[in-house]
Amino acid sequence: MAVKPSPSKTVSPAVYLIISIVSFVVAIAIGYYYFHYMKQGGTEKMDDRIFYLVLVLFGIAASALIFGIMNSYASLKGIQANVTYKFTGPVVGVILTVLGGFLIPKGSTDQFLSIRVFNQDNEPVTRGTVTISFPHYQRNASINEKGLVIFPDIPYDQLRNNIIINVVSDGYTSRNLDTLLSNFDPINISLSQAKIIRISGFVKDAGDRPIKDVEVTVDGTPYAATTINDGSFDIPIPGYHFGDRITLVTSHPSYEDKIKQFDIESGEINKIEFVLNPVPANIPKNKKR
After folding, report:
1. Domain residue spans in the chain?
2. Which of 119, 127, 152, 289 is most buried, taking the most CB atoms under 10 A from its CB?
3. pLDDT given at position 225
4. Phi, psi at residue 202, to the nearest 5°?
5. Which whole-number Å values give the CA distances from 272 to 67, 194, 224, 262, in the listed order?
6. Is the pLDDT of residue 7 over 70?
7. Given a cut of 70, is residue 5 above it in pLDDT?
8. CATH code, 196-276
9. Can 110-190 and 196-276 be said to share one CATH topology?
């Protein structure tokens, strides 16, 4: 008894539309979840798997939409390893999409790494050097006026390696950061201001000769220093911050007092220079209060 072939079933365009919408929404959801919650702890193999999973879902969505609009199907058939295969409908679009995905360039294998350096007030630190140490080599660059350091041409294969970032800036405590380079997102590093500001300079007369034994005092504080034979002085002062204004006052029995006022702009201020005039012989100088 002959068996009648079953009539071919056609798929409603509405079914294709539902498949397209569901696939598209799932692809977007997977991509969003991965980049917001899984990317940091992912591996390169996981990156590829997620990439092709999303690609397959987009392929299903695009193919279902096209075949639903056309109310038709496509076919792909052939022989591979003595096995005859035939694919029809949206499956064809999915296969072609995934095959095309292998040809999509993933971009350059070299990336750039940016590091932002700021202080405790969240203001950019505009001077200093940043050194990054990879397992097999080191690189360094200067901090620019925006508090940024850009390291170009970082090999992609450095991802998932531990790196050490060292930041040195005048007036701030140096910072070492040992971290895992899990992606090429900008890295933010905060520096604390150094606890001690150093002020140094020279005292001389109008003939450019150094004057020793001149007491240089930070006015209103107990911090002071006395010049040595070459006229130099060095005063470490704790508890000050960038932007603070201080006043230096000189004192010597044979020379007139001089005052200099300036703002602290770095951790070491080393170009303070006093030129003192001798006290006139007929005007005795008052003793220091």
Report:
1. 13-103, 110-190, 196-276
2. 119
3. 95
4. -135, 155
5. 81, 20, 14, 10
6. no
7. no
8. 2.60.40.4130
9. yes
Amino acid identity of residue 9, one-letter, is K
Residue 188 has pLDDT above 80, yes or no: yes
pTM score, two decimals?
0.47
Q: Under the phi-then-psi rule, with left for phi > 0, alpha for psi from -120 to 50, and beta for the rest, what region is 94?
A: alpha
The token duo for 256 is: 């007139």
Fold of the CATH domain 110-190? Immunoglobulin-like (2.60.40)
